[in-house]
Specification:
By secondary structure, this protein is of the alpha/beta class. It has helices spanning 19-30, 41-51, 57-62, 73-81, 90-99, 112-126, 131-135, 142-145, 152-162, 176-184, 198-209, and strands at 5-8, 103-108, 138-141, 169-173, 188-191.
Length: 212
């Protein structure tokens, strides 16, 4: 069954995310009111560039100096990383069980600061030092490949590098726009609600894709 590929998004699929905590951290640091919980346009543009590896950590952090020029890079990095939550310990066994049956890949809009923080968390909390190599056959991080979901070129790049056609791919993401883009490229794709664990919902996604 290894001709089938399961592609997971990372945030809100394998690791929890806390957007509310992140907004509060930046409100406190920058002395701003983002009560509408909408990311300002100038920050959105910077995130898009940062997630594609087009700007450095420092250049990204400078974006927030529009709101508070006295905020240190260290404090901005800390606030940025408050978005990241936890990976439950049973998730690792879940991934290994899938890897025995399918080719597993990870496709994530991510950046250098978040990935470094994830690796730090994995080492300290789970004694996992080889996350990508142990649990996946291929990994596609946006800031490394220079491409970001839901841009169609991202899915074409992944498909080409996997060497497999879209009908043999099941992609799981928490963002509808990312899933719709994948479907437009001929992939089987499902929107995952992070209120549920991926372990409890995964069989449904397999059935929907015709993989079972």
């Amino acid at each position: 069954m290894k001709e089938k590929v399961i592609i997971f998004d990372f945030g809100n699929i394998l690791i929890s995310l806390d957007f509310e905590r992140s907004f509060r951290a930046f409100e406190d640091l920058l002395n701003v009111d983002w009560s509408d919980r909408m990311i300002p346009g100038v920050v959105q543009k910077a995130i898009y560039q940062y997630d594609r590896g087009r700007i450095s950590d420092e250049e990204f952090a400078k974006t927030f100096h529009v709101y508070n020029p006295d905020a240190s890079f260290a404090d901005i990095y800390k606030a940025w990383n408050t978005l990241l939550g936890i990976i439950p310990s049973n998730r690792f066994e879940f991934l290994l069980s899938l890897k025995a049956k399918y080719k597993l890949a990870l496709l994530s809009n991510i950046n250098n600061l978040h990935l470094n923080e994830v690796h730090h968390y994995l080492r300290n909390e789970h004694s996992v030092h080889d996350f990508e190599e142990r649990f996946f056959d291929q990994v596609f991080y946006s800031h490394i490949i220079g491409k970001r979901k839901p841009d169609l070129e991202t899915y074409r790049y992944v498909e080409e590098n996997l060497g497999i056609s879209g009908e043999n791919i099941l992609f799981i993401d928490d963002m509808e726009e990312n899933v719709l883009a994948a479907r437009n490229c001929g992939w089987n794709a499902c929107v995952h609600n992070p209120a549920h664990s991926i372990e409890n919902k995964f069989s449904e996604y397999l059935i929907a894709a015709g993989f079972e």
